[in-house]
Amino acid sequence: MQPIRILFSSISGNTRSFVKKLTDYAHEEHIINSAAPLIEGFEISDLTNFTDETDPFFVCVPTYLSGGNGIDNGVKELMTNTLGEYITYHNNAQLVQGIIGSGNRNFNEQYILTARRYAHATKTAVVADYELRGTNQDVERIYNILITLTK
């Protein structure tokens, strides 16, 4: 079984930390049961060379917004623009299996708004979400969701 691939962007380190916990958890599960899929995380940044993806992947994206109320006015995406451009590069968007969003629930309607916008742009769904760096329960829950979606 091929590893589950996750492309992500991390500015403050929260998303990077979560993807690391997710890949570590998948590795532990794989040791217990060799049929349990591994997870590979690929960070997309301003230094990334754009390439044509050939295998399906999930996207894990934090929420960084400026202005507006997240619903109907003035919101502007910040910081994850390179990830968005990478996903829409050539036919990459066709390989997106779903979006995992992170954010801070204190931001109410803007919670995981970036993930919802990416899902809309790629015609996929937000398959999971977590707050800030995520908990161990989030890691286990999201791992199980990804397994279910890749079968």
Automatic annotation (TrEMBL):
Gene3D superfamilies: 3.40.50.360. Pfam families: Flavodoxin_NdrI (PF07972). Residues 4-151 form the Flavodoxin-like domain. GO terms for molecular function: FMN binding; oxidoreductase activity, acting on NAD(P)H. PROSITE patterns: FLAVODOXIN_LIKE. InterPro entries: Flavodoxin/NO_synth (IPR008254), Flavoprotein-like_sf (IPR029039), RNR_NrdI (IPR004465). NCBIfam families: PRK02551.1. This is Class Ib ribonucleoside-diphosphate reductase assembly flavoprotein NrdI. The gene is nrdI.
